[in-house]
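Justification of computing resources. Each target in the renewal requires a structure prediction run like the one illustrated here; the chain below, 273 residues long, is used simply to show the kind of job we budget for.
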Amino acid sequence: MSASRILLGFDQKRATRAGLVFAAIVVSALALSAVFSAWVVRIGMPNDALSYVLTSMQIAVLVAFPLALFAAQYSYTIEQYQESLDAFASTDSLTGLLNQRYFEHATQDELVRMKTNGHQGAVAVFELINFPEFRDRYDRAAADAVLRTVADLAYSELRGPFDKLARRGNASFLILLSNATLVESIEVCERLAARISDTRFHIGGRKLDVPTCFGVAHLISDDDVKDIIAAADEAMDNARHAGANRVYSSIGMSERVRVALSSRHSNKPGFAV
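Resulting C-alpha cells:
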C-alpha cells in the first residue's frame, strides 16, 4: 500500500480518539451548562427580559470560554505537529538542508516565476571528491562533521529567499540560484569552492583539505527540472574528470568554462593531508 493511501485511509484508532475528543467536549459543555443553570436557579430566575438575556449571555460565555481554550490549544498542537511533519518530510536529518524532492518542487516554482518576471537562474550540483574513501578511513562522526561544515559554508553563500540548498545523499549537494545569469552562478560556485578548499578540517589530529567538483546548468523555463539537474550532473562529471576544485557549465559539456582556485589545490584528486 502506498504512503498516500495509508495517510488518507480510514484508521479505527484515529476515529476512536476523535470520537473521544468530541464526547469530552459535549460532556464538558453539558456539565458546565448544568452547573451554571443550577447557580441561576439558586440565586433566582430573572424576572424581566433584559436580565434574562444578560444571564443567558453570561452562561454562554462561561461555558464557551473553557471550551474555546481547549479547542485553541488542541488546534495549536495539531498545527505544530503538522509543521514538524512537513519539516521532517522536506529536510535532511543530518545537515538540516532541504532534501532533493523538496528542492525539485522549489525549482519548479522558480521556473514558473521566471515565466512571469523574465529573470534568469541556474541549478548547480557539487560533491566532495573521494568522500566514500574518506568515510571508510575515518569514523562516521568525522564524515558527518565534514558534511555539516560544508553545508554551513554552502548555506552562507545563498543570496536571497529564493536561493535553495539541498543535500541529495552521501556527499552530493544541489543549489538553486534565483535571478542570476550563468556567469553569476558560476562565480557563486567559485566562491563556495574556494571557501571549502581554504577550510582546514581537523580530523583525527590531522588537518585535511576537502576537494570538490561543481556543475552548473542554466535554467530554461520550458525544461523539465530533472533534465536540468541531469545537465548539471553531466557538467560536474566533466569537472571531476578534469581534476579537483573545478567549476564546469552545462553549455559546451566537453569544454571547461571556468577553473576555480589556485594551482595549490586544483590537481588534488581527493581528501588530502
